[in-house]
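Render this sequence as a predicted structure.
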Amino acid sequence: MFTLILSRVLFLGLFLLAVYAVQRFWFLRAWSWVGTFSNANWRLGFHAVLIALAGALLATVLYPLFGHGISRLSVGSLNLGKTLATFSRLWLFASFFGFLAVESVGALECVTNIAARLLHHPGAVAGGFSPSRRTFFQYAAALAGGFPFLAATYGFAAGRLRFTVEHVDVPVANLPPQLDGLRIAQLSDIHIGDYMPPREIARAVDMANGLHPDISFVTGDFISGEGDPLDACITELSRLRAPLGVWGCNGNHEIYAGVEDDAERLFREKGMRLLRANSAVVEHNGGRFNLIGVDYQRDHMTSGEPAGPMLHEIEHLIRRDMPNVLLSHNPNSFHRAADLGIELSLAGHTHGGQVKFEIVDHSISPARLISPFVAGLYHLPMKMNGGSVQKAALYVNRGLGTLGFPVRLGVPPEITLLTLRRA
């Protein structure tokens, strides 16, 4: 436990150090630029503005420590706190990538100057310096540094609410012929709050209903934190329509906020069912499958020594006379699920990273820091009784909402229609 606490403190320290370095980079450049103004009053005024903005940014970075009170600040009809928090989050996101872009251009300029000096380029003066090359890199740095700010604006204004329907055929081991073609609608990671109002959840629900699924699943994270309107979220989700019902499981944010029992109660009151280390047999066209649900399965984020392996509380629920479908918010439970012989797992949690970059046919996503199962369909070997080996399947939904930074770039929010197929 001491090692875990130490690693968390170290991670927090490195994060704050990175934030400080990036903000210092931009602040000093802005301060120097203002210093070039010829009018002393303008210099004084803009320097004061920079100091005020730095203070506001610091306050919003630390505002969770103050009980999120800043988000409730208002001036007339303007929610000043929310506006300030939104601006700060977008700035932190864009300034980090802008910093990397500018420094990359600077490093490239340094390399070209060294190369020019070594090659004695005729356009260079002493030290390999070339005025024209310097001008080129100044413009390149401005362009590269400005792009993340434009991208963040797009990701906030459009990307985060551009709901996408994904149609996925999922081969399932041991699937009875009667269940071939069963249609499942999956929603995940709603995160109701300032950036995911009830009207947007209602729009996603309408889109899911328009797919005419046989059964609907919601795989956790209805809220982001304590005080978020859990009731309003589940009320909107209760409008989901499917002949075989609406089922769900808790995510990590229900656990953190201490509302996992409330979520279960609200599901029940709204005519749905939240599975928490229990199961139900679902029948369709004469075929049956065993539906299992669990609360968030802790791995590297556990606060102490684990009581046992993941999914240890459902080992007795697994059936061998029909396929098993598991609702587990954390996709990292997939290895254990495959070992236990669970044919299909459905998860969320990663948000697909919210941001994805394509570099030389490789996708780079922050979600890879927490899971190898970022988004989409995955398979692992699954040993069956008698020694035969088949494949277990996992589908990871990219989720609807956002967390931390209200931005999505290259990772649109997702409503999934899964069609089961015989493997």
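Summary. The first strand starts at residue 164 and ends at 172. Confidence is low (pLDDT under 50) at residues 301-306.
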